[in-house]
Amino acid sequence: MKKRALSIAMLAATLIAPHVGAQTASAPAASSEAVAVDPAAVDALHKMGTALQSLKRFSVTTQLTGERVLEDGQKLQHTATAVLDVDRPNRIRAIMTSARSHREIVFDGKNVTLYTPAQKYYATTAFTGNIQALIDKLGERYGVEVPLADLFVWGTPQAPNDQFESAMFAGQDYVGYDLCDHYAFRQKNVDWQIWITTGEQPLPRKIVITRRDDDARPQSVSVIDWTLHPDFKDTIFTFKPPSGAKKIDFVPVAAKKG
């Protein structure tokens, strides 16, 4: 998994203790990558990715909670929500809301629009790729992050699963009413956990990320809810400027720095 793919949960915070019956509980300290990385845990990501890529039309909501660390080490929490309506391969509407900001991204397969309701500013640019390509362009060219970007990366070649220092099954837990398999991974300066629904359609229900490059070990958590048979209309992917909205230009990151 690319580091960017971890960004979907970088706004949050609780850590659930591993199940007593975790498979790795009796394993000795890993002496090599072959020992530390459980192939079954990696395979679970592959299966989840396949399930995600099979979804064509769906809605997904995430509740995010994150930690900000002050200079004296005190941690402050902040929260946000994101809602995505998706019609693959090339239509998406994303709404991101927090106390600090409210943004909307609308893509109809031909044009993508970023709208900020508080300021009533919107910017539109032409684009004809798929959703994953759009996410890449918005991030690299304009510095705009799309929430839950991992959902469009898992299950593709852009989400390699060969970068783990460790990977393990950590038992089962409920997320809401859904029984989930709990997995834990370590790579570079990040520890992360994921809860995947059991059954025929394994989907991510919760993700926890812990930064190891900060002595305070700030954490983030994303709890994800799915609607696999949404009733939204196709018109939601067409942006219509509200009364009084002002059109501005999309400014590339390089131009902003200049």
Automatic annotation (TrEMBL):
Pfam families: DUF2092 (PF09865). It comes from the Bacteria. The keyword Signal applies. Keywords: Signal. InterPro entries: DUF2092, LolA/LolB/LppX. Residues 1-22 form the signal peptide. The keyword Coiled coil does not apply. This is DUF2092 domain-containing protein.
